[in-house]
């Protein structure tokens, strides 16, 4: 905003229905509607008006600010053109974005579709960015121990595949995936190859499922807390998100939600869940399926971690326990081999696999053929299982190092977590009345990152929680990273409780 427009001494107008929001209007020759626009822009940029918040009706705004109705209408029109608010006929005017900081001459925000505007959380993108930075100790990146990746075997198999297939190994393959990989996955899961759809990562599967099964306004039940990529994808599809508390896993509560919301699907990660690391026991899995089948609701089982139990014991998946064909199972090699391969898969009844493959063509005609052939050979030649055994041992070592570091660096009870026996995560809560986002800001400056709890909730919660991934950081650096976090946690708790509690930001 230009300096001439904002005068801190100008009289403040408050809007009764919007706590803490202040609009300053002054007789300085600038059209009043623009002053209102700039005022809202300032409140949005300062975080006092969040995306999704409803603005007063034009009539009420005019009355609250002592301006004419036409000025209020013009102000909202301009805010809409700048892409900061959206008007929904009959429902009101809502904040939908933060102002562009780039000063770009063309207002792209105003052109972006309503659906796309629901995508405003950059958490996943920053996760991907920090994962590759060698100067950062990343407890955020949910990736397999890179040091275990079987580089030599990968090179040898790639050579062999190229020798055998020549340039065909680089040709376009079918949308459903290369038949060789579909067969290899199907054999492992004891299914037919036609039930397998190869994906560019599990995330693509979630997007396809959302596009295939959901219309805007449909309800879905999902883990609370749960995987942030799923929250973002389902939110972008316009779904009404109904969280089911995975830590209490109360089936009577689930049934109530099914009756009340009539959801289109249940989404869950039952094994070494992201972010809690917890696993649903076999009887609970059967109960979940029984309820879903009674209410005829499909279950999406997002299952990237099932083979990552430290002991090597592998739980039966919901898909394996399902006799009704209501489960869509999503898997990935991102967590067991390498995220950079971008190979995932989805298994379900043939009819739905076929429909999903047609939708996949909208964004993706095929998946990387060479990599599919190499991964298929990893699976069938037994290398994959040997690699998994080594990976599980290394992840367990990192888990032990992290829990030991927390015990060593923190006061008793300062950080709590429930032990896990596999997966990649420690889901932490802390006593100090501070906000994990503030802690993250400071930690990032010190070269340590994690993911704050809020990102894992479909609603507003998790401010005193955070997720630490133990799998990607070598044992030697874990203590150093946790020591920094513990020190910052103490520092922030000494400095901030008064400010945060006064502003009502801590829940
Ligand atoms: C539960 C869950 N599903 C899906 C994904 C995405 O996996 P991919 O890298 O295969 O897209 C992740 C990644 O963290 C995840 O935790």
Entry keywords:
binds pyridoxal-5'-phosphate, 507 residues, 7-stranded mixed β-sheet, alpha/beta, 4-stranded antiparallel β-sheet, 18 strands
Structural class: alpha/beta
Q: State the helical fraction.
A: 40-55%
Report the mean per-residue pLDDT as an integer.
88
Question: What general form does the structure show?
Answer: globular
Query: What characterizes the major β-sheet?
Result: 7 strands, mixed
Query: In DSSP terms, counting alpha (H) and pi (I) runs of 4 or more, how many helices?
Result: 18
Q: Low-confidence parts lasting 5 or more residues at pLDDT below 50?
A: 1-7, 500-507
Give Rg in angstroms: 25 Å
**Spatial ordering of strands, largest sheet:** 7-13-12-11-10-8-9
């Amino acid at each position: 905003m230009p300096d001439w427009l904002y005068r801190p001494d100008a009289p403040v107008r408050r809007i009764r229905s919007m706590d803490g929001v202040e609009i300053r209007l002054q007789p300085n020759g600038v059209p009043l509607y623009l002053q209102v626009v700039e005022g809202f822009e300032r409140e949005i940029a300062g975080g006092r008006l969040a995306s999704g918040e409803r603005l007063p009706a034009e009539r009420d705004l005019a009355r609250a600010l002592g301006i004419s109705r036409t000025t209020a209408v013009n102000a909202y029109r301009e805010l809409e053109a700048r892409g900061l608010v959206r008007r929904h006929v009959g429902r009101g005017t809502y904040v939908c974005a933060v102002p562009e900081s780039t000063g770009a001459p063309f207002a792209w925000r105003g052109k972006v579709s309503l659906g796309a505007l629901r995508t405003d959380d950059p958490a996943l993108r920053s996760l991907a960015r920090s994962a590759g930075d060698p100067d950062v100790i990343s407890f955020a990146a949910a990736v397999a121990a890179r040091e275990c990746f079987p580089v030599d075997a990968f090179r040898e198999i790639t050579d062999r595949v190229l020798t055998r297939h020549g340039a065909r190994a680089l040709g376009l393959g079918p949308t459903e995936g290369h038949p060789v990989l579909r067969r290899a996955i199907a054999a492992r899961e004891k299914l037919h190859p036609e039930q397998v759809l190869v994906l560019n990562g599990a995330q693509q599967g979630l997007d396809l499922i959302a596009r295939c099964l959901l219309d805007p306004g449909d309800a879905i039940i999902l883990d609370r807390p749960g995987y942030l990529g799923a929250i973002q994808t389902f939110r972008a599809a316009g779904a009404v998100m109904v969280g089911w508390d995975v830590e209490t896993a109360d089936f009577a509560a689930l049934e109530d939600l099914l009756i009340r919301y009539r959801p289109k699907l249940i989404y869950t990660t039952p094994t070494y869940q992201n972010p809690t690391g917890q696993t649903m026991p076999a009887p609970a899995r059967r109960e979940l399926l029984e309820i879903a089948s009674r209410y005829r609701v499909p279950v999406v089982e997002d299952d990237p971690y099932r083979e990552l139990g430290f002991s090597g014991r592998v739980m039966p998946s919901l898909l394996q326990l399902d006799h009704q064909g209501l489960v869509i199972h999503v898997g990935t090699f991102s967590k067991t081999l390498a995220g950079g391969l971008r190979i995932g898969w989805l298994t379900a009844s043939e009819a739905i696999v076929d429909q999903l493959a047609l939708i996949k063509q909208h964004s993706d005609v095929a998946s990387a053929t060479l990599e599919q052939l190499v991964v298929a050979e990893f699976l069938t030649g037994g290398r994959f299982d040997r690699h998994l055994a080594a990976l599980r041992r290394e992840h367990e070592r990192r888990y032990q190092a992290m829990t030991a570091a927390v015990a060593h660096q923190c006061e008793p009870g300062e950080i709590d977590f429930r032990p896990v026996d596999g997966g990649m995560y420690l889901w932490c809560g802390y006593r100090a009345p501070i906000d994990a986002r503030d802690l993250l800001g400071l930690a990032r400056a010190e070269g340590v990152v994690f993911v704050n709890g809020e990102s894992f909730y479909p609603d507003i919660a998790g401010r005193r929680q955070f997720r630490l991934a133990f799998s990607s950081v070598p044992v030697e650096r874990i203590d150093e990273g946790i020591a920094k976090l513990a020190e910052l946690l103490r520092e922030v708790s000494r400095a901030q409780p008064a400010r945060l509690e006064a502003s009502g930001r801590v829940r």
